[in-house]
Write a structure and sequence with these properties.
Number of domains of chain A: 2
Strand order of the largest sheet of chain A: 1-9-8
Helix content of chain B: 55-70%
Number of helices of chain B: 18
Shape of chain B: globular
Number of domains of chain B: 3
Keywords (chain A): 2Fe-2S, Cell membrane, Disulfide bond, Electron transport, Iron, Iron-sulfur, Membrane, Metal-binding, Oxidoreductase, Translocase, Transmembrane, Transmembrane helix, Transport
Radius of gyration of chain B: 25 Å
Helix content of chain A: 10-25%
Subunit structure (chain A): The main subunits of complex b-c1 are: cytochrome b, cytochrome c1 and the Rieske protein.
InterPro entries (chain A): Rieske_2Fe-2S, Rieske_2Fe-2S_sf, Rieske_Fe-S_prot, Rieske_Fe-S_prot_C, Ubiq_cytC_Rdtase_Fe-S_su_TAT, Ubiquinol_cyt_c_Rdtase_Fe-S-su
Number of helices of chain A: 4
Distance between the termini of chain B: 35 Å
Number of strands of chain B: 2
Distance between the termini of chain A: 78 Å
Order of helices and strands of chain B: HHEHHHHHHHEHHHHHHHHH
EC number (chain A): 7.1.1.8
Strand content of chain B: under 5%
CATH superfamily of the largest domain in chain B: Cytochrome Bc1 Complex, Chain C
Structural class of chain A: alpha+beta
Largest sheet of chain B: 2 strands, antiparallel
Largest sheet of chain A: 3 strands, antiparallel
Oligomer: heterodimer
Order of helices and strands of chain A: HHHEEEHEEEEEE
CATH topology of the largest domain in chain A: Rieske Iron-sulfur Protein
Membrane topology (chain A): Single-pass membrane protein
């Protein structure tokens, strides 16, 4: 009579007495339980994957990952706002005075120490290409358009929380932690910049 | 919850005790789907379909919420956004295939569930409310499925919307203004698409609420069982967990394998290629049929071709709605006190004839209209109503049922004392001690 197998008793909470009769050791049923539940767990994880990855940028967004800009019409002292990955990009043709102002700064004393040369291409030091996204909380700084407030250092000024950037796009005053980001770019020709 | 011997929830540690006194959710779960819910021990695999329907609803809600992140309910961009989901969105294709085939999966499960209820008399006392709430869910499902089918804004979507809202125009006097009101225009367009999207998103949550009511109502008498005999004592039941969680788990595994075959290998087998042509208000597809789960009703709709007092169009619409509303009155149409058809030799024949009849209606509903298919749908539709309104009351009056088993445990265990002891009390338990001494 004791050989009659009553299924699953030990898995029931509050039924410890049943297992005592069996003695110790892993039973086949324990193995099946663990295997089945593990398999269901792996299956659930696989099912969750598409629910999550659908949120990352889709193919049409990824297709916008590089953009070419003609800069031949930008005179020294002027700048343009363009778009890369749906974010504003500032392309500015610096005047000799701007370059002078940027070079005269003691780099070691900056919050994010970088020289103008670090932030431009060799031989193209007058072309400053940065994202037009304040590194504080993402607003678009003023200063690229004619007549806009360029801030205390003649570069950019973010109206949201008052960050001042200099002519090299470096943070000089205000809450922003780093300089304006210089995206990956190259000169496809003398007059065309390829961003991304 | 339902029986005196249901094991009460006992918090295992101080935290659970603390929680139980403040927010007894674990107690609720334990009593609903845990060790504290006694279930007849003889349930067969047809009793998996309630849980499977819940799973299908969950799959539809989750994939639907995600698809809603990428879909535009804009008449000029809905079709394109669905194609973007298929091509551009990461894993969008699998999400849409699951949602699209998931609707069919849901209906297939629910149809088996309904016929299970018809066979085993689940609509009879004391479970009338469970059955009627089920019919409410089914009607809500039909509305949800229809509005969801309109969203891709393909040819079938558009003309489906046109035809289904056309039902309302059959109502005398107020019909046509009502149709225009429902569509927000004279034909389906932006206004209709946006409201269908909004309601398609809403209704599944209303279904979920009715599901909760249904489970609540079910757990008062507890599940029915294949013999239809009432649970008499503890020997007749097993705790839901682990016995039926395991059985349902197995059923879920099998169902998901079958579902995956459709999702990954036959994703278009249940759809119509016409729906991959963008909606065109000027051209109706040559052969317009609803999704397979509406075929039987479509056959009933089309079966009426002659004006008789009322216009044929109105008869068709009335009959179609009546074919479902009829199910609300099943408890009173079937007077037999015997629940399970297994013990009803005469009704058993008519049950299977009804199954066949619904399949014939399904065939007629998707076929091209010819004199033959029209006659077929007329005969089958007439039989459908005859089954419920004439055959069922008469059979339940004149039939002599087979003898019922004395109890559930007797029917499955044939009286073996050891096995029929209440769960947890065998071998080492106190109740088994006298038996062991014999």
């Amino acid at each position: 009579m004791a050989t009659v197998e009553q299924p699953s008793q030990p898995t029931m909470p509050g039924e410890p007495q049943a297992d005592a009769a069996h003695g110790a050791g892993v039973r086949r049923r324990d193995f099946i339980n663990i295997a089945a539940v593990s398999f269901a767990g792996v299956g659930a994880a696989v099912a969750v994957a598409p629910l999550l990855i659908q949120m990352s940028p889709d193919a049409s967004v990824r297709a916008l990952s590089s953009t070419e800009v003609d800069v031949s019409k930008i005179q020294p002292g002027q700048g343009i706002k363009t778009v890369w990955r749906k974010q504003p990009v500032f392309i500015r043709n610096l005047t000799p005075q701007d370059i002078q102002a940027a070079a005269s700064v003691e780099v070691g004393g900056l919050r994010d120490p970088q020289t103008l040369a670090d932030r431009t291409k060799p031989g193209k030091q007058n072309w400053l290409v940065t994202l037009g996204v304040c590194t504080h909380l993402g607003c678009v700084p003023l200063g690229i358009g004619e007549g806009e407030n360029k801030g205390e250092y003649g570069g950019y000024f973010c109206p949201c929380h008052g960050s001042h950037y200099d002519t090299a796009g470096r943070i000089r005053k205000g809450p922003a932690p780093t300089n304006l980001v210089v995206p990956e770019y190259e000169f496809a020709s003398d007059t065309v910049v390829r961003i991304g | 919850m339902s029986f005196a011997w249901a094991k009460p929830y006992e918090p295992k540690n101080n935290f659970m005790k603390w929680l139980d006194e403040r927010l007894p959710v674990p107690r609720l779960v334990y009593g609903a789907v845990g060790g504290g819910y006694p279930v007849p021990r003889n349930l067969n695999y047809f009793w998996n379909f309630g849980v499977l329907a819940g799973l299908a609803l969950l799959i539809q809600i989750i994939t639907g919420i995600v698809l809603g992140m990428h879909y535009y309910s804009y008449a000029g961009g809905a079709f394109e956004s669905v194609e973007r989901i298929m091509r551009d969105v990461n894993a969008g294709w699998v999400l849409r295939y699951v949602h699209q085939n998931g609707a069919s999966f849901f209906f297939a499960i629910v149809y088996i569930h309904i016929f299970r209820g018809l066979y085993y008399g689940s609509y009879k006392a004391p479970r009338e409310m469970v059955w009627m709430l089920g019919i409410v869910i089914y009607l809500l499902m039909m509305a949800t499925a229809f509005m969801g089918y309109v969203l891709p804004w393909g040819q079938m979507s558009y003309w489906g919307a046109q035809v289904i809202t056309g039902f309302f125009s059959a109502i005398p006097i107020v019909g046509e203004p009502l149709r225009v009101f429902l569509l927000g225009g004279y034909a389906p367009d932006q206004a209709a698409l946006t409201r269908f999207f909004s309601l398609h998103y809403l209704l599944p949550f209303i279904i979920s609420a009715v599901v909760i009511l249904k489970i609540w109502a079910l757990h008062i008498p507890g599940s029915s069982n294949p013999t239809g005999v009432d649970v008499k004592d503890e020997k007749d039941t097993l705790p839901f967990h682990p016995f039926y969680t395991a059985k349902d788990g197995f059923g879920i595994g099998v169902a998901l394998i079958l579902f995956s075959i459709f999702v990954f290998f036959l994703p278009y087998s249940l759809g119509h290629p016409d729906n991959y042509v963008e909606a065109n208000p000027l051209v109706t597809p040559a052969h317009i049929v609803p999704e397979w789960y509406f075929w039987p009703f479509y056959a009933i709709l089309r079966a009426f071709t002659v004006d008789f007092i009322l216009p044929a169009k109105l008869w068709g619409v009335l009959a179609m709605f009546a074919s479902i509303l009829l199910l609300f009155f099943l408890t009173w149409l079937d007077r037999s006190p015997v629940r399970s058809t297994s013990y009803r030799p005469a009704y058993k024949i008519f049950f299977w004839v009804l199954v066949l009849d619904v399949m014939v209606l399904g065939y007629a509903g998707q076929a091209h209209i010819t004199p033959f298919t029209l006659a077929l749908s007329q005969v089958a539709a007439a039989y459908y109503f005859a089954h419920f309104l004439i055959i069922l009351p008469l059979v339940s009056k004149f039939e002599k049922p087979l003898p019922l088993p004395t109890s559930i445990s007797h029917s499955v265990l044939h009286g073996e004392k050891e096995e029929s002891a209440p769960f947890g009390l065998t071998r080492t338990g106190p109740a088994a001690a006298p038996a062991a001494a014999e």
